[in-house]
Amino acid sequence: MMIIDTHSHAGVNWFEPVETILHQMNVNGVQKTALIQHAGNYHNDYLLECVKRFPGRFGAVLWVDVADPNAPATLEQLARHEEVIAVRLHPYERSPEPDPLAIWRKAAELRLPVSCYARSAAQAADPGFRAIVEQFPDLPVILEHLAGAYRPQSPESVTPPYDDYKEALTLSRLPNTFIKFGGLGEFCVRPRPLAPHFMFEDVPPLVDMAHEAFGPERMMWGSDFPPVGGREGYRNSLEALKEYPCFRNQGEREWAFGKAAQAAFRWP
Q1: What is the pLDDT of residues 63-83, one digit of tens each?
Q2: Of the candidates 241, 176, 175, which has an alpha carbon nearest to the alpha carbon of residue 208?
Q3: How far apart are CA 22 and CA 31, in angstroms?
Q4: Quick check: 225 and 234 in contact, CB under 8 A?
Q5: 141-143, strands of its sheet edge to edge
Q6: CA 241 – CA 64 distance, rounded (Å)
Q7: Whole-number Cα distances in Å, 122 to 38, 87, 112
Q8: How confident is the model over 16-25, as pLDDT tens digits?
Q9: 8: which residues sit within 8 A by CB, 6+ positions away?
Q10: CA gap 1, 91 in Å, rounded
Q11: For residue 142, what are the β-bridge partners?
């Protein structure tokens, strides 16, 4: 089974150099990784350099400063690099007037998927964001971090009855949408004391709900390395999800851990 990590970070002004990710990939049987530009960083040269240094192992998901009136032209220039497989945007990001959707329109024109970072499920559920996804039906939109329903940014989103998350999951009715899931440590409380083997005692049904809404053909695993190192760790974030009960058979796992990513991102 090909395993693709759709969400890791590398950098020189924040996080770790790419060699640390490569080590995790090699010891855990991960063939490819999407290097996701970290929030607030518009300096993309390092990620492009990483992809070129390790051909076949990485793709770059870049960020541009949407507030810059020249952002669409900058995105077009960046998209000429075959190493670029997507652009990263917040669901609330808009271009300056006169065309607030200029950056989204340019991504659609370039056939460049959007990896979308919602800081909460409420942002992903916003009607204005849904309208954008509907307006560009040929633009793949990949919802990161279970559409924002994860504890570090939005603890209310992981508390029943999950109203915002349920609303965000209705985006699955739009066939150009996909969703990323990470390690269980993104939304589960670390057990104290720890058991001798990896486990969480109370797992909210967020992955199950995503599976019900999107199906494995539009789900994709992303480690969130290196932040995952402060939670359960890279290996546990992968192995626990490979055995997660909502993935009923090997065919479903092949989609959720590789084939969906190949379908959604612009891999060379």
Answers
A1: 999 999 999 999 999 999 999
A2: 241
A3: 10
A4: yes
A5: 4-8, 32-36, 58-62, 84-89, 114-116, 141-143, 177-181, 219-221
A6: 32
A7: 21, 22, 25
A8: 999 999 999 9
A9: 21, 33, 34, 35, 36, 222, 223, 224, 225, 226
A10: 32
A11: 115, 178
